[in-house]
Automatic annotation (TrEMBL):
Subcellular location: Cell membrane
Bilayer-spanning residue ranges: none
Lineage: Bacteria, Bacillati, Actinomycetota, Actinomycetes, Micromonosporales
Keyword Aminoacyl-tRNA synthetase: no
Top-level division of the source organism's lineage: Bacteria
Protein name, UniProt field: Amino acid ABC transporter ATP-binding protein (PAAT family)
Primary location group: membrane
Pfam families in the record: ABC_tran (PF00005)
ABC transporter domain: residues covered: 7-251
Length: 255
């Protein structure tokens, strides 16, 4: 029996002020797969991550995680948006890393990483601290465990943000342009952490402009344009033999 995808997005629609941002998007991500989402600004890439991470509701469509609908409650007939307490529980299975690091400025790196453990999962502080230190070590920041965000470089802050998401043991990690706010020399240290996560089998959806990362790390690459997926394919085919003219124009512009 074939196992279902870890993530399945079915016919997802979203509009803001009568402007359609997502126009019926479908895609799947298998367990252990890395899916890279490419496309011009405003094409809907970040919006779909916000839908999947339950930060915003979809207008219509279905999101399944491990075969179960998320963001809604009820049966097929009386489906309705889930209340916040249900959303909060469902969000723990999904890690989200943003462009901006969103760290608490008054907390050091360790307390930033352990914040979700203590407030959401109610893990005792001693145990949460141990898990946070372990996760900071995993992203190469054990020596900066007691540094505050203002004392860290952008790359270090982003790695703290990744550790904060990872410590919740999510089934799925979402990255929304995680290197776009960084100075060029700091990009590599964040991509190295993401590449290590991929090699460890973490299931990831990554919105990125880093073509080299998409080609070398992604299992599948998708191009978004005007709220639709124009093309999705394994990286070799996507970059070397794209089927669609829109993909060819996008890649020519990026190069």
């Amino acid at each position: 029996m074939k196992t279902p995808p870890l993530l399945e997005v079915q016919n997802l629609h979203k509009s803001y002020n009568n402007v359609e941002v997502l126009g019926g998007v479908d895609f799947t991500v298998r367990r252990g797969q890395v899916k890279a989402l490419l496309g011009p600004s405003g094409s809907g890439k970040s919006t779909i991550l916000r839908m999947i991470s339950l930060l915003e509701p979809a207008d219509s469509g279905t999101i399944l995680l491990d075969g179960e609908p998320i963001g809604v409650i009820g049966g097929r007939v009386d489906v309705r948006p889930a209340p916040e307490r249900v959303l909060a529980r469902q969000r723990t299975a999904i890690g989200m890393v943003f462009q901006k690091f969103n760290l608490f400025p008054h907390l050091d790196a360790t307390r930033n990483v352990m914040s979700g453990l203590t407030t959401v999962l109610k893990v005792p502080k001693k145990e949460a601290r141990e898990q946070a230190l372990e996760m900071l070590d995993r992203v190469g920041l054990s020596a900066r465990a007691h540094a505050y965000p203002a004392e860290l470089s952008g790359g270090q802050q982003q790695r703290v943000a990744i550790a904060r998401a990872l410590v919740m043991k999510p089934k799925l990690m979402l990255f929304d342009e995680p290197t776009s706010a960084l100075d060029p020399e700091l990009v590599r240290e964040v991509l190295d952490v993401m590449e290590k996560l991929a090699s460890d089998g973490m299931t990831m959806v990554v919105v990125t402009h880093e073509m080299r990362f998409a080609r070398s790390v992604a299992s599948e690459v998708a191009l978004f344009d005007s709220g639709q997926i124009v093309e999705q394919a394994p990286p070799d085919r996507f970059f070397d033999a794209p089927e669609h003219e829109r993909t060819r124009r996008f890649l020519a512009h990026m190069h």
